[in-house]
Amino acid sequence: MSSRLIVTAIALLTTTSLHAQVAAKTKVDPATRKGVVTLNPFAIFAEYLAGDVEVKASPSVTLGAGGSWVGISDFNGYRALEAKARYYPGETALRGFSVAATAGFASGKEENFDFNGQQTAGRRTTRPTIGTELSYQWIIGPSSRFVAVTGLGLKRFLGTEGNSAPLNVPILPTARINIGFAF
């Protein structure tokens, strides 16, 4: 009786462990992912925070949002928040080459100086923006959870400001080097 019990227990353990090994080697299809969240890990060291959230709307289109914040005083406390519609011509939303249209708002502080040349608090200016991005995004790993993305774009500031005001450039180049996870 005890030898039958031992043989049965060994058989069950072997079957269970083999099943677990097969399940661990099963690769998840990236097409099953519904969205991604990414951040720029390198910018954090330069007092800069930038990230994106993107969700599938169709097999070739995603909708999302992006934001950035710069803590360096030379950049006038720059902040931006924008909505994004991204088209994947390969009809593999969230993976591969994409082109995006963006619309949002950006703000920055004026640089004011007193008579001694010391910087003083200035008013914050906010302007609407529109833009475009070209990106390439990878979803990799056995569970298709890791995301890497690179991209370049342009952002146009709408409205008018004086020459001394922040955001006085008409067009700003943008770049993305983000990592994150897919869900």
* CATH fold-level label: Porin
Helix share bin: 10-25%
Can you tell me the CATH class?
Mainly Beta
Largest sheet: 8 strands, antiparallel, barrel
Strand content: over 45%
Number of domains: 1
Q: Rg to the nearest angstrom?
A: 24 Å
- The largest beta-sheet arranges its strands as 1-2-3-4-5-8-9-10
The assigned CATH architecture is: Beta Barrel
Q: State the end-to-end distance.
A: 50 Å
| Series of secondary-structure elements, N-terminal to C-terminal | HEEEEEEEEEE
The secondary structure category is mainly beta
Number of β-strand runs: 10
Q: Whole-number average pLDDT?
A: 83
- Shape by Cα distribution: elongated
- With helices defined by DSSP (H or I, 4 residues minimum), what is the helix count? 1
Question: pLDDT below 50 for ≥5 consecutive residues: which ranges?
Answer: 16-23
